[in-house]
Amino acid sequence: PDHPPIEHVALFDEAQRAWDLAQTASFMRRKKGRPDFAQSEPEFLISCLDRHPDWAVVVCLVGSGQEINTGEAGISAWLAAVRQSFPNW
User: Fold this and answer.
1) How far apart are CA 31 and CA 53, in angstroms?
2) What is the pTM of this model?
């Protein structure tokens, strides 16, 4: 749905481990039946909160001492999502 979520705040623990576009699209295809999904996990989360006409916040918690695994995008994906798709954030 295109309606904003009830929440205005999202807390994302281990934000450096958010999925990149390929991993998110694979999950959405396999588990949610959405073969044409084209957003990384950070971009998708921000897009949901961006539906609010007034305000929303994403709090990204970052852990230390962990390697990025296959399909995980790192902090740069959050910055890229804002820069490329949500410059008003």
Assistant:
1) 30
2) 0.91
Q: What is the residue whose two structure tokens read 């959050």?
A: 78
Q: Rounded distance, CA 60 to CA 75, Å?
A: 9
Q: Which residues of 66-77 are buried (b: 16+ CB within 10 A; e: fewer)?
A: eeeeebbbbeeb
Please choose, from the candidates 62, 32, 61, 70, the residue with its C-alpha nearest in 3D space to the C-alpha of residue 44.
Answer: 32
Give the C-alpha separation, 73 to 39, whole Å: 12
Q: In this predicted model, what pLDDT tens digit does every residue of 21-64 receive, in sequence order?
A: 999 999 999 999 999 999 999 999 999 999 999 999 999 999 88
Distance CA 68, CA 76 (A): 12
Among the listed residues 89, 17, 16, 15, the one whose alpha carbon sits nearest the alpha carbon of residue 47: 89
pLDDT tens-digit readout, 9-33: 999 999 999 999 999 999 999 999 9
